[in-house]
Amino acid sequence: MEYLTLNNGIQMPLVGFGTFMLNGETCTNTVISAIETGYRMIDTAETYGNEKEVGEGIRASGIDRKELFLVTKVNFKSYENAEQTVLQSLKNLKTDYIDLLLLHWPFANYYAAWHSLEKLYADVKIRAIGVSNFEPDQLLDLIAYNKIVPTVNQIETNLYCQRSTERSWMDKKQVAHMAYAPLGQGNRNEMYQEPAVVSLAEKYEKTPAQILLRFLTQKNIAVIPRSTKPEHILENFALFDFTLTNAEMEQLSTLDRKEPLIGKPETPELVEFSLTW
Known about the structure:
Distance between the termini: 32 Å
Number of strands: 10
Strand content: 5-15%
Order of helices and strands: EEEHEHEHEHEHEHEHHHEHHH
CATH architecture: Alpha-Beta Barrel
Shape: globular
Largest sheet: 8 strands, parallel
Oligomer: single chain
Structural class: alpha/beta
CATH class: Alpha Beta
């Protein structure tokens, strides 16, 4: 595993396991499988409705909690009660602390929610705090008028949506880049069939998914791919035994379409749609 050092000195794995749209026994068993494969970062969220199942998977895996990096998020509908929401997440996950707590969307009273996260951080209930889906202007505003700089901004990032502009601002403020939907969502087959991706997969004897994930991790972008199939869970984890050349990285960079695949919700109603799609 390779790691990112966050702006507060905490180390975060470069590859984690996503649990979006995983529920019930499927979620629990898949988390167990991911941990047994070697994943040490697990990503969930209040709005996913699966924190209890994720917690059960962690306990059933038998792994020491200290070896894991646990990420969850507060939904914008809970921003007025963010502290209570985080405390409930701790109960759901059956843990004494959360490694990274994110504000899920830049809607509603996220200033109030951020102040609550700062308090929980001071109380050592959270090891790092950050945001998700924040555009550069929103991120810069939050940094300018609050005490703690977010450690992470988790945004949709993949071959077709590389976020170079966002990344430049994040680097200036030392905010780490984490990618959700790193293999796309809905049209990943198109990515897999890109001639450049197919050619590199053949050259390195890897799968297209591994090429796409390695492209991101070589740019120091943390990724949280999700799968329920053991072979894909293993495949998505095996990324560090090969390195793309500078020319190959540049070739893949030219495929950026500069638009989110999942969409760019402008209102809470569209967010609700995108989260249940």
